[in-house]
Amino acid sequence: MRTPLKVILSIVAAGTALSSCSIADAPPKSSPTPTLQPTQTTSPTYPPSAGEPNVRLTVTTLSGNAGQQSTHRLVCVGTSAVEGTDLPDADDACRVLDRQPNLLEYEPAETSEDCEGVGQPNIADVFGEINGTSVRTSFRRDNECNVKTWKKLEPLLGTVQEK
């Protein structure tokens, strides 16, 4: 018996959310906790796919030791989001991934002299498929280098508002 892909992805997303609760340490008392802010309050409706989607991703974002969590789906055909998408900036995310799919090959930078720590406990887990290749990666905003990568992928990962 085959298990539908949506069921598998839902189970993986739930497990990711639960297992990720402990990976974000509370910020130092002296720094404010930035929170993820949706760029719009309702998700737009996207057209049915006219072709085979080349991007199918699930993005789970956590803020402040999992105090705030959101999960969105992105389905693209080329540079356009299609039905099945609920990511607020989906068309922009499709364009970014079409131009630079290698951004999803990101390896987090360790905090060092070159990458000064910033104490932002934001994490994003991304999994799915892009251009026939499986994707499973995490992004974080704990130092300046990782913040720069997050900003390049902001349409996919979400905008962080400093308090």
The separation of the N and C termini measures 50 Å
Average pLDDT metric: 77
Approximate strand percentage? 25-35%
CATH topology: Subtilisin Inhibitor
Tell me the total number of β-strands.
7
Largest sheet composition: 5 strands, antiparallel
CATH class: Alpha Beta
* Proportion of residues in helical segments: 10-25%
Number of alpha- plus pi-helical segments: 4
**What best-fitting shape do the alpha-carbon axes yield?**
globular
Our count of domains comes out at 1
Spans of 5+ residues with little confidence (pLDDT < 50)? 12-33, 35-41
The CATH homologous superfamily = Subtilisin inhibitor-like
Order of helices and strands: HEEEEHEEHHE
CATH architecture: 2-Layer Sandwich
Q: Provide the structure class.
A: alpha+beta
User: Order of strands side by side in the largest beta sheet?
Assistant: 4-3-2-5-6
Explain what you see.
With 163 residues, the protein is of the alpha+beta class. It has one domain (5-22, 54-158): Subtilisin Inhibitor, CATH 3.30.350. 23% of the residues lie in helices and 27% in strands. The chain has 4 helices and 7 strands. The strands form 2 sheets. It has a 5-stranded antiparallel sheet, with helices on both faces. Strands 1-7 form a two-stranded antiparallel ribbon. The longest helix has 15 residues, at 5-19. The radius of gyration is 16 Å and the shape is globular. The chain starts with a helix and ends with a strand. Mean pLDDT is 77; it is low at 12-33 and 35-41.
